[in-house]
Amino acid sequence: MIDETGKLPSGIMEQSQKLLDFAADYIKLPESKEMAVTFVDNKRSHELNLEYRETDRPTDVISLEYKPDNEEFFFDEDMELPEELLEEMDPFIGELFISIEKAAEQAQDYGHSIEREYGWLVVHGFLHINGYDHYTPEEEAEMFGLQEEILTAYGLTR
Question: How many domains does the chain have?
């Protein structure tokens, strides 16, 4: 975890680490998996959102899921490796970028604590990296339901 801004509220990095560990256990993610979290300002969030999502504005959380492929490893070109083996060989699953300015704005807009907002963003991004989405009503119900389950079980309620 990195705070590029130097302005992350006290205790948020520790809370985020504990919550990510809790969420990983909750969805039974293998302990070998790793991800990066970087706390950024709106300027950096805007740049990333434009680069990765072609959206010309800052956003609260950007999730970049990493999926290894055969090219990442030095094997014979004709060799096909099972997905499970590729995942086992490379523990890095992705990275999150969280705008501290958006987190503060949204906590105020939604009327809940800054801790709850960071928790929501961390778990939301984490679930995206682990294959959850909310493009359809069914996906949204599944992802947001699981997200709320994790936050409630952890103790970060509204």
Answer: 1
